[in-house]
């Protein structure tokens, strides 16, 4: 399994200038490649191949006075920019032809120097190294100071240098990690995600929704108001933009830290984890959009999925149309309707239910039923219509 390990970088003034030059060259090569293919399509010419595009916008471009400065940066980052463009085109073609599942993907767009996030990528053939003193040596940039918060589990295959909207630099290493199965446990859990409580587990535990964005709204509002009062193009406005970006970054990091700790605890304590496959995009189009985005369900579910695969746990998503809230977990009776304002209800069998706990129990039961047995078949096979020629007893026979 491949994972990313991200660390903070502290480049000096000369290195920041070199990185800015590399960001600009990568952006130029990407835009030149996109423009070449766009012009060819509008002129009715064949699609420019990957090799021809690389020769045109990198090799030949370096020989012209207009693009001679491309030689000032490592050629690997320029090649990786074209690799990103080629991948974007492949995903776009696969999307419009139906080979790629999910929502339709738009064609690649031109990159802007005003983007909040700039990034370059070095692969193994770029010969980046980690020095014995703990610095990251990048070609044509130098030895950059790294804050190592933890050790790398293996030798990285590539590293991306990222500059975010707050002006901070990060090194994101791609490393290969081996599976680390945990000791088996008999407990299994169903997880019902919500807004009143972030997660309700089938064992009755309720995890409060931290609402990081709501809690930081006052600070964000003041920072945004301070930004709006600054004159456009002034240095004070640039400083205010950085303050707004840092305020938002604190919210993002707090939410991510919460999701990591909660997902790790659930995976460590349970052999199997089942969650509902929510339509986050659909819920984000309702009046609850702000709260839905603040919850960060998708990131949390992704963490559960990859951690379950790494630590030898079972993980499954339950169909979003499964009536987990309306179904009685005791007798199986299905209620006609269950509005959101109904948080507790009593079934006709006399059992009182907490809406969220009952949903989590039903998610656990559905996940167990849909698991594969040792032979590879479903524990609960789907219903089938009996065949006409199926053997059976004759009517009236004893």
Describe the structure.
The chain is an alpha+beta fold and 398 residues long. It has helices at 13-42, 50-59, 75-96, 212-215, 217-228, 235-269, 280-283, 289-295, 297-310, 355-370; strands at residues 2-10, 118-123, 129-130, 136-138, 142-147, 158-163, 169-176, 188-193, 197-201, 206-208, 272-276, 314-318, 344-346, 352-354. α2 (50-59) packs antiparallel against α3. The termini are far apart.
Fill in the keyword field for this structure:
10 helices, 398 residues, 14 strands, elongated, 18% strand, alpha+beta, 7-stranded antiparallel sheet, 5-stranded mixed sheet
What are the SSEs and their pairings?
Blueprint: E1 2-10, H1 13-42, H2 50-59, H3 75-96, E2 118-123, E3 129-130, E4 136-138, E5 142-147, E6 158-163, E7 169-176, E8 188-193, E9 197-201, E10 206-208, H4 212-215, H5 217-228, H6 235-269, E11 272-276, H7 280-283, H8 289-295, H9 297-310, E12 314-318, E13 344-346, E14 352-354, H10 355-370
Parallel strand pairs: 8-11, 11-12
Antiparallel strand pairs: 1-5, 1-7, 2-6, 3-4, 4-5, 6-7, 8-9, 9-10, 13-14
Outline of this structure?
The protein has 398 residues and is an alpha+beta fold. It has helices spanning 13-42, 50-59, 75-96, 212-215, 217-228, 235-269, 280-283, 289-295, 297-310, 355-370; strands spanning 2-10, 118-123, 129-130, 136-138, 142-147, 158-163, 169-176, 188-193, 197-201, 206-208, 272-276, 314-318, 344-346, 352-354. Helix 5 packs antiparallel against helix 6 (235-269) and helix 6 (235-269) crosses helix 9.
């Amino acid at each position: 399994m491949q994972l990313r390990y991200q660390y903070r970088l502290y480049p000096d003034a000369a290195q920041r200038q070199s990185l800015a030059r590399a960001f600009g060259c990568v952006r130029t090569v990407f835009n030149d490649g996109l423009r070449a293919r766009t012009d060819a399509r509008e002129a009715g010419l064949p699609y420019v191949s990957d090799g021809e595009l690389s020769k045109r916008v990198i090799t030949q471009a370096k020989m012209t006075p207009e693009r001679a400065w491309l030689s000032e940066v490592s050629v690997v980052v320029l090649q990786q920019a074209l690799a990103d463009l080629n991948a974007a085109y492949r995903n776009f073609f696969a999307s419009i032809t139906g080979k790629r599942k999910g929502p339709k993907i738009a064609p690649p767009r031109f990159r802007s120097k005003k983007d909040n996030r700039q990034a370059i990528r070095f692969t193994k053939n770029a010969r980046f190294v980690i020095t014995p003193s703990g610095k990251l040596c990048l070609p044509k940039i130098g030895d950059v100071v790294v804050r190592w918060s933890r050790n790398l589990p293996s030798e990285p295959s590539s590293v991306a240098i990222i500059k975010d909207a707050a002006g901070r630099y990060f090194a994101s290493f791609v490393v290969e990690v081996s599976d680390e199965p945990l000791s088996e446990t008999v407990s299994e859990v169903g997880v019902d995600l919500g807004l009143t409580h972030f997660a309700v587990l089938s064992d009755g535990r309720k995890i409060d929704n931290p609402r990081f964005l709501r809690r930081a709204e006052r600070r964000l509002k003041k920072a945004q108001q301070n930004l709006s009062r600054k004159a456009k193009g002034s240095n004070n406005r640039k400083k205010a933009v950085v303050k707004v970006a840092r305020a938002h970054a604190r919210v993002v990091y707090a939410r991510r830290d919460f999701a990591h700790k909660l997902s790790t605890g659930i995976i460590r304590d349970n052999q199997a984890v089942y969650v509902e496959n929510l339509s986050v995009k659909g819920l984000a189009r309702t009046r609850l959009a702000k709260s839905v985005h603040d919850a960060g369900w998708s990131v949390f579910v992704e963490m559960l999925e990859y951690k379950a695969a790494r630590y030898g746990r079972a993980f499954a998503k339950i169909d979003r149309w499964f009536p987990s809230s309306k179904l009685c977990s005791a007798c199986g009776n299905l209620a006609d309707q269950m509005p959101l304002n109904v948080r507790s209800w009593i079934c006709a069998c006399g059992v009182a239910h907490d809406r969220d706990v009952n949903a989590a129990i039903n998610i656990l039961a559905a996940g167990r039923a849909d698991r594969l047995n040792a032979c590879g078949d479903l524990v609960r096979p789907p219903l089938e219509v009996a065949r006409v020629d199926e053997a059976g007893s004759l009517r009236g026979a004893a």
